[in-house]
Structure formats: C-alpha cells, structure tokens
Amino acid sequence: MAWMRVGGVGGLHDATSPSGSELIVPASRPHIPNLAAVVLVHVVALVYAPRTFSLGALALLVVTVYLTACVGWSVGVHRCIIHRSFECPRWLRYALAYLSTLAGIGGPRYTFQSHNTRDYYQSLPNGPDISGYHRSFLYSYWSLLLRRPHPAGAQPVPDEVANDPFLRFLDRTNLLNQIPVAGLLYLLGGWDYVVWGGIVRLAVVFDLFASVNYFCHARGYQRFRIRGCTEEGRNNVVLGFIGMGEGWHNNHHAYPRSARMGMAWWELDLGYITIRLLQAAGLAWNVKTPHNTELRDSVTRVAIRSTIAGSR
To answer: Which of 243, 244, 249 is nearest to 219 (CA)?
Structure first.
C-alpha cells in the first residue's frame, strides 16, 4: 500500500494523530466505477435534459430526489444506520437503504465507511484536509471520487451492517440497481422519464451531496464550537433548505446522534419532518433530538457567528 506524509494544507498546520505524532495518511486512488458514472450522467444530462424537459418531468425529478436523497440517504443511511438516531422495523430499514443506494452515492457499507473515514480525520485536533474544505469546491468534489483506505483509528463499520446479507447485496450491486428503476421509468413515461427521473436525478443528487460536503464545512454560521476538532461544521442557510436538513451541519457536529438537525424554528429540516411522519405512523421510535440525547464532548454554545473555512 502506498502512503503519503501530510503537511500543512490550506492554512492548516502539520497534521497530527491523537497521540501528537506526525500523521501518515494512506494514499488514495480514484474510484473508477463512481468516477465513470458521475462523468457519464452529467454528460448525458447536459445533452438530453433540455430536449426532454416538461413540467411532468420536473415534478418527477423533485419526487425522486426526495425519495432517494432525503428518505434514502439522509433519513435511512445517515441518520438511522450510521448515527442510530431512531429505530424502525427491519423491512423499513432495508427499504430506506435501497432508496439510498439509488441515490448513487454508494451502498450502505461503502457510505458508512466513507463517512467514518472523513469523520475520523475531521475529529483530530489538527487533522489533514483530505476533503479539500480549505482548498476549493472542485478539489472537494474530486475527493468524493477517491477510494480511501479505512484508517486504523476510525470507527469500524459494525457487524450488523457489514455482515447483513441484504445490505451486502446492495453494496455488491450498487449502480446495477439503477437498471430496473430505469426500466420502470421507461414504462411509465418513456425516455423523458428515464432522463429526468434517472440520469438528471443522479447528477443533481451527487452535486447536492458534494455541495453539502464542501459548503457546510467551509461557509456558514456556527452556534457551537467543538474544541479539539479540525472541523466543526457550518450551518449553511441555502443548503439547509435544499439539502433536506443536512445543511445545518454545525448543529449535526454538536449533536451527531440527533435525528433533528435544524434546531431553530426557521431551520427547515425535511429529513426530520419525514422521521416525524414515520413516527406518527408507528414506523419509527426512540427518536433522538437535542432535548433527549447527549451533546458531543468538548462542545461550547456560542453566539451565532459567521465563519469561513480556515478562520478560527
């Protein structure tokens, strides 16, 4: 395995491990299937979306983005499977994981491991800028297309995810799950529906995910400071509204186990609204919020302050 020595990046000092020694980060390589898929869907979307546009196709895009990015990724994988912010029946957990896989970000195990890798480096007192928050949006975008070895100090993917037969199946099949969905969309509305409910959806969801990943660590306001962490997250108003609640990222860093990311009345959190609807239907329970779950260690509430990456 190749390794790289991490020095100062974009205003950061030399990266150090929790023990204070210099940190050596395993070298990453492009994830070829994901890279090819991202390039392909963007090219096809740019060529065919204008030719197939209709109000019906646009409505389909909104619905499918909500189902895959919000219900699948944000609610199902990020809040339920990764952070265990609520419980639900096994069949629903599987359905949510399937919808998340359709978001095109990766299968449950892959996204869990990628999340924990980023979280590990962000939680170091002087961690390396592997996600490009102190560089640029384009570098951060590219970082999502890299396959990174799981660092030894990072939280492992739990056995209930890593060894679950259905979740393993979703990881193995990953992008192949788009094929039956494309067939269904074609039967419902022809090629126009395939373009807008499949290809444009994949491009929009990935770009939305990349935007949350960068801007919600680089631009926005904070109500919490997290001592000893390289990244504390930012609450970004624009991405808070269009990012299914994921844009209230400083809140999430402070209360990682909370199902509710938007804390103020005006911080719209579509993911939490969805969880509350599931709870009302008896399909979600033990829902954690800032009122009934623990605050992260070394967190201090401060007056709301606007920040950019690199400013401390």
So the answer is: 249
* Element housing 301 (H / E): strand 299-308
User: Domain limits at 259?
Assistant: 3-308
CA distances from 17 to 3, 8, 95, 196, 211 (A): 15, 14, 38, 45, 28
Centre a 10 Å sphere on the Cβ of residue 107 and count the other Cβ atoms it contains.
23
The DSSP string of 195-226 is: IIIIIHHHHHHHHHHHHHHHHHHHEEEEEEEE
Q: What is the number of residues in the chain?
A: 312
Q: Write phi, then psi, for 196 (nearest 5 degrees).
A: -85, -35
Residue that has been written with the tokens 């960068």 in this structure: 214
- Band the pLDDT of 312: cuts 50, 70, 90: very low
What is the number of domains present in the chain?
A: 1
Shortest CA distance to 1 belongs to which of 34, 19, 33, 25?
25
The pTM assigned to this predicted structure is: 0.89
Q: What is the pLDDT of residues 41-60, one digit of tens each?
A: 999 999 999 999 999 999 99
Over residues 84-110, the pLDDT tens digits come to 999 999 999 999 999 999 999 999 999
Contact by Cβ (8 Å): 86, 286: yes
Query: What pLDDT digit, counting tens, does each position of 228-271 carry?
Result: 888 899 999 999 999 999 999 999 999 999 999 999 999 999 99
Report the alpha-carbon distance of residue 78 to residue 70 in Å, rounded: 10
CA angle 113, 200, 161 (to 5 degrees): 20
In the structure encoding, which two tokens stand for residue 168, read together? 């393993």
CA distance 311 to 265: 28
